[in-house]
Design a protein that fits this description.
Elements: H1 9-12, H2 18-34, E1 45-46, H3 61-71, H4 74-77, H5 83-95, H6 111-124, E2 135-138, H7 141-152, E3 161-167, H8 171-179, E4 183-188, H9 199-208, E5 214-221, H10 233-246, E6 249-253, H11 269-276, H12 280-283, E7 286-291, E8 305-310, H13 314-325, H14 332-342, H15 352-378, E9 383-384, E10 393-394, E11 397-398, H16 402-410, H17 415-427, E12 429-430, E13 432-433, E14 444-449, H18 454-475
Parallel strand pairs: 1-12, 3-4, 3-5, 5-6, 6-7
Antiparallel strand pairs: 2-8, 7-8, 9-11, 10-14, 11-14, 13-14
Helix pairs in contact: 2-17, 3-5, 6-14, 7-8, 7-13, 10-11, 15-18, 16-17
The chain binds pyridoxal-5'-phosphate.
Pyridoxal-5'-phosphate binds at residues 50, 140-142, 170, 221, 225, 253, 255, 291, 293, 300, 305.
Length: 476
């Protein structure tokens, strides 16, 4: 047997993503279209990923101008860019070793940027103090999540260590837990109540782990992916009391904190915890994750994220530092993108009018899309869509006819994958099945991204409407 065939059991336990099946078909359809094959559509609309730039929304000019000037400092001398762009690029270059974005940085990131992240967090949290010592920049937030999980999970422990995680959830986190030999202990968000997290359900999940594993952490995503819910302060307080009582580490994925609709408000776990006061504020251990991949900047390809740790023992902090140092440092452009995200142009700066216009253009599109998706899907028989309060995805429930489920089984497919495949084939729209993110037994969902230009979303909704109406007619 070859070395590769002897892959670790943990890696083997990760299921292949349903996305792979659909992505293969997508590739073929695109090839068929290029070869002139006739289909009811001229191009496929891929709304499966949370990638604002891939979906046709434009990068922010200020961000790209500063990055361009940092990459090619000759541009600082030219008259092409506004003066604040040049000043920002000069300052950032002074903070890079040797004045170049091609240099390594300290493990936790460029010192000055880490310092400014801590100031941003303090501003965001209404003055709650934040120490730069507790921040680590990483190549995207998923990397930080993986590293903190490595510290928390002990694959050799008996019983194995577990993490209580939401259903539905961003699939990569569950894969990370399993690949590290941990156990995913699911808790279900309440769909009928706008996908809210209920503390009784956390207790049920914890009880279900008895005899199976030793849960050591609770994972929350707020605003949610894929369900688009935003947690209330009250619900967060309940969670904090729960983790304190059960002695669980709290992992808070807060990467969608800037994307809010329906008058919802984001409050960080760090702030709620601080405002609850001692003893909770001094004892609950928390890791909060943020990223330059999401929000209006959406520079996911540049790979810049960070984690802030709260109440973590100094000896553990040393191990965390060691874990992060295994990759030397995060990509410098990703670090710079984080800096630009948390310190955008201010009123009065030469770049502000254009920056403001571009951000408002994206915000308007997202607010429009969040509202329209719900309106349109809820008008179709067989769909039920909860409000999208934040984030970049919608996760509507599909009530599939028995005939559709039977046909899916005959083809060896999950029913929601079958629906997505038919939607892709017949209407040229790629969305992903709910089974990829977890869903209650016997329910079906689809997930798609609302971060696209309004015209694209309207076309997606037109195609879904016409496909779905025919699908339900044929199979009911
Ligand atoms: C909830 C959530 N957390 C983390 C990530 C990973 O982001 P990053 O690009 O910062 O690794 C994503 C990406 O889509 C996400 O949806």
């Amino acid at each position: 047997m070859s070395v590769l065939q002897e892959l670790s059991q943990n890696v083997k336990s990760i299921k292949p993503l349903e996305y792979e099946i659909l992505a293969r078909r997508l590739k073929m359809i695109r090839k068929e279209l290029r070869q002139g094959e006739r289909k009811p559509y001229k191009e496929v609309l891929d709304v499966s990923f949370g990638d604002l730039h891939m979906s046709g929304l434009k990068p922010l000019s200020f961000v790209r101008q500063v990055l361009a000037a940092c990459l090619y400092p000759q541009l600082i001398k030219s008259s092409t860019f506004p003066v604040d762009v040049k000043q920002r690029a000069q300052r950032l270059l002074r903070e890079c070793a040797g004045g170049s974005v091609g240099s390594y940085t300290a493990t936790a990131g460029i010192h000055e940027i880490v310092q400014r992240i801590s100031e941003f967090i303090t501003r965001r949290d209404g003055g709650v103090p934040c120490s730069p010592e507790n921040i680590f920049i990483s190549p995207g937030s998923q990397w930080s999540i993986g590293n903190i999980l490595k510290i928390l999970l002990n694959s050799e422990a008996s019983p194995r260590t577990g993490v209580i995680t939401p259903v539905p959830n961003h699939s990569t986190t569950n894969s990370s837990i399993m690949s590290l030999g941990g156990v995913v202990v699911p808790y279900y968000l309440n769909e009928e109540q706008g996908w809210q997290l209920q503390v009784e359900e956390l207790q049920r999940a914890l009880d279900s782990a008895k005899g199976q594993c030793n849960p050591i952490a609770l994972f929350v995503t707020n605003p949610g992916n894929p369900a688009g819910q935003v947690q209330s302060r009250k619900s967060m307080q309940d969670v904090i009391r729960f983790v304190s009582e059960k002695r669980l580490f709290l992992l808070a994925d807060e990467v969608y904190q800037d994307l809010l609709y329906e008058n919802s408000e984001f409050v960080s776990y760090k702030r709620v915890l601080a405002e609850m006061g001692p003893p909770l504020s001094d004892t609950v251990e928390l890791a909060s994750f943020h990223s330059a991949s999401k929000g209006f900047i959406a520079e996911c390809g540049l790979r810049g994220g960070y984690v802030e740790l709260v109440n973590v023992d100094p000896t553990v902090m040393k191990h965390i530092h060691t874990m992060f140092s295994t990759d030397t440092c995060a990509p410098v452009l990703g670090q710079l993108a984080l800096d630009l995200m948390i310190n955008p142009p201010q009123p009065g700066d030469p770049s502000y009018p254009l920056y403001h216009k571009e951000v408002e253009h994206i915000r308007t599109a997202l607010i429009h899309n969040a509202k329209r998706v719900r309106e349109v899907l809820n008008s179709l028989p067989g769909f039920s869509c909860q409000p999208v309060e934040g984030g970049s995805f919608v996760f509507p429930r599909l009530f599939l006819p028995a005939k559709a489920i039977q046909q899916a089984e005959e083809m060896g497919m999950k029913p929601d994958t079958f629906y997505c495949m038919r939607l892709l084939e017949e209407a040229g729209v790629l969305v992903l099945p709910g089974s990829e993110y977890g869903q209650k037994e016997g329910t079906h969902h689809i997930r798609f991204c609302i971060m696209s230009p309004q015209e694209t979303m309207e076309e997606v909704l037109r195609r879904i409407t016409s496909f779905h109406t025919q699908f339900m007619r044929d199979l009911s």
